[in-house]
Design brief:
Order of helices and strands: HHHHHEEHHHEEEHHHHEEHHEEEE
Helix content: 25-40%
Number of domains: 1
Number of helices: 14
Shape: globular
Largest sheet: 3 strands, antiparallel
Length: 331
């Protein structure tokens, strides 16, 4: 899998705008946080109440309260007080449910490149609830569309591409108690924050050297050093010398890093649908062979239909395809 090809532009955009203002960066300003990803994962498992999240994730209550408020403010969850109860439940909105496609692709990447103990033993199989037919998630260039070929993908700058400030969030430093889940587990330790994703994003835009990434992201040097070290240790990037005196290095995507491309595509598509001006997105993906603008969406490979969270169920491989404990309705 190759990196997407940048077009030849007569007046290229400033690097800071390209890296911090593209649709994927906008999405990670909202969801590029480890606790946020884990909270949303539990919401897809059917969790709706504060105490249930607290028990499932062992998350500090002040952190949980702040993340839930942010998710409500950003439109991913609704706070609803059911009739006859005093305390609110948090329910996925349409915008929140649409994140399910990203979770599916991130789970596939995790299974192949950073499996938890459970993922090493079992495979999580999804199926359509009404038909009971298994689903094979894949990112297409639109509903009932075609598979996206990375080597053919370029990008076009739109009028809304401007540099954005980084979100006010700290790196997740809590020592998480072991919670062996079959989806979205170890990946949050590798790419579970905004700056990690910005660093990976630079690699996809072929910005590979420390000073280039620093300029493009506005990161503090010590933060960038930390993220590069973590991404190299996680086998997402590889460090290679390009100069010997004095030693200088560049950071390139590994096979595991390039395999994140479907996650990037799914995130781009979600951001286009929910965070961007549909008529003038900040950056568009273009098939360089056909000139067609691409609107990525996670679909079933066999039918080409978008996968909807509300009618998707799951089982662990080897179990019968029937509702059971741990298989709640999604949303």
């Amino acid at each position: 899998m190759a990196d997407p090809h940048p077009p030849q532009l007569a007046d290229p955009p400033p690097l800071r705008a390209l890296i911090t203002g593209n649709p994927v960066a906008l999405a990670h300003g909202v969801i590029g946080d480890a606790w946020t990803q884990l909270i949303m994962r539990e919401a897809f498992y059917g969790v709706r109440r504060f105490n249930d999240w607290s028990e499932a994730l062992h998350i500090p209550r002040t952190v949980l309260s702040g993340r839930l408020k942010r998710l409500v403010d950003n439109g991913l969850l609704d706070s609803v007080v059911p009739e006859g109860r005093r305390r609110a439940e948090y329910r996925l909105t349409a915008m929140g449910r649409d994140l399910f496609g990203i979770a599916l692709m991130q789970g596939r990447w995790e299974r192949d490149h950073a499996p938890s103990r459970m993922q090493s033993r079992y495979d999580m199989v999804f199926y359509d609830s009404p038909s009971r037919v298994p689903l094979d998630p894949v990112v297409l260039d639109g509903p009932n569309g075609s598979t996206i070929v990375p080597q053919r993908i370029g990008w076009e700058v739109g009028p809304g591409l401007v540099a954005r400030e980084s979100p006010t969030q700290r790196r997740w430093r809590s020592k998480r108690r072991p919670v062996d889940r079959p989806m979205i587990d170890r990946s949050v330790e590798l790419i579970g924050d905004y700056w990690s994703w910005m660093t990976v994003g630079c690699a996809f835009f072929r910005l590979r050297r420390f000073d280039e990434i620093l300029l493009a992201t506005g990161m503090a040097p010590n933060i960038l050093s930390d993220r590069l070290t973590r991404l190299v240790a996680g086998s997402i990037l590889v460090r290679r010398a390009y100069q010997s005196g004095p030693p200088r290095y560049e950071y390139r995507l590994t096979d595991a890093g390039r395999a994140l491309y479907p996650v990037v595509l799914a995130t781009h598509g979600w951001s286009l649908r929910w965070l961007c001006d549909q008529k003038a997105p900040p950056l568009s993906l273009v098939d360089q062979t056909t000139g067609k603008h691409i609107h990525p969406i996670v679909c079933d490979r066999n039918t080409g239909e978008p996968i909807h969270a509300a009618q998707t169920r799951w089982m662990m491989e080897g179990q019968p395809a029937s509702r059971g404990k741990g298989d709640p309705p999604i949303g």
